[in-house]
Specification:
The protein is of the alpha+beta class. It has a single domain, classed as outer membrane lipoprotein receptor (LolB), chain A, CATH 2.50.20.10. It is built from seven helices and twelve strands. The chain has a twelve-stranded antiparallel β-sheet. Helix 1 crosses helix 2 and helix 5 packs antiparallel against helix 6. The chain starts with a helix and ends with a strand.
Length: 249
């Protein structure tokens, strides 16, 4: 009989195998609120925007994780409460050229009986370097620098070009666009809805093209000012991840 831990390791191992060949986030990273395909976008997270998100992200402590931003006046392009709008948010983000933070993440995977918790460090350096370094439950590095993607974990080390990940590259670039404040690149890949106010905002990204939609239904970033504090990624297959970003500096 296969134990719970062996089953979890098997599933997580398959996720890495999918990513290894360029398939399936800074969730997450999304830094400065979490996504690299089926493995990294929802389950490992850039995070972007998964890096933040861009990781972006991500895009969340562990337990009853909820958005830090209330649902208030929605604004896609026009001004929100107090004149707060997408243009002002991205302008503030663009002024922050370097960011480091801790993250805690909970992944809800249908094949597993219990959520998978992870924690580690996120970093973003404009214009194009995103890094998600997982420390627990096992060491893992997911780094994007320009056109290069680097994956490291025990028994695996590989560098590949974004050109080898045609389904995933637009999502990575879009999460970087968020952190760089590049509205044109962001809206090219996502329908964007922003609601709230400067000290408590929530931005929902829905992929525009079929390839992106086959990976993620939506990415929700929540934060205050130029800080992305939480990234939630809902995958097309129903799995989801929630990443909270702490001690951003």
């Amino acid at each position: 009989m296969i134990s719970g831990s062996e089953r979890r390791d098997s599933v997580l191992g398959r996720r890495t195998a999918i990513l290894k060949v360029g398939g399936a986030a800074l969730g997450g990273a999304a830094l400065g609120g979490a996504a690299l395909g089926r493995a990294a976008l929802g389950r490992a997270a850039l995070g972007a925007a998964r890096l933040g998100a861009a990781g972006l992200t991500g895009t969340a402590g562990i337990g009853a994780l909820t958005s830090v931003a209330p649902r208030r006046a929605m604004a896609q392009a026009g001004p929100a409460a107090g004149g707060w709008d997408l243009a002002r948010l991205l302008d503030e983000m663009s002024r922050r050229k370097r960011t480091r933070a801790r993250f805690v993440e909970r992944q809800f995977i249908a094949l597993l009986d219990e959520p998978v918790d992870a924690s580690g460090e996120l970093s973003f350096e404009a214009p194009g370097r995103l890094e998600k370094r997982t420390l627990k439950p096992r060491p893992e590095l997911l780094a994007v620098d320009g056109d290069q993607v680097r994956i490291e974990r025990p028994g695996l080390a590989r560098t590949m070009s974004l050109r080898q990940l045609p389904e995933v590259a637009p999502l990575i670039e879009s999460l970087r666009a968020t952190l760089n404040g590049d509205r044109q690149a962001l809206e090219k890949a996502f329908d964007v809805n922003l609601e709230g106010r400067r000290d408590a905002w929530r931005m929902t990204l829905r992929p525009r093209d079929e390839a992106g939609a086959s990976l993620a239904r939506r990415i929700v970033l929540s934060g205050a000012g130029h800080d992305v504090q939480q990234v939630e990624i809902e995958q097309a297959d129903g799995d989801r991840s929630v990443m909270r970003i702490l001690d951003s500096r």
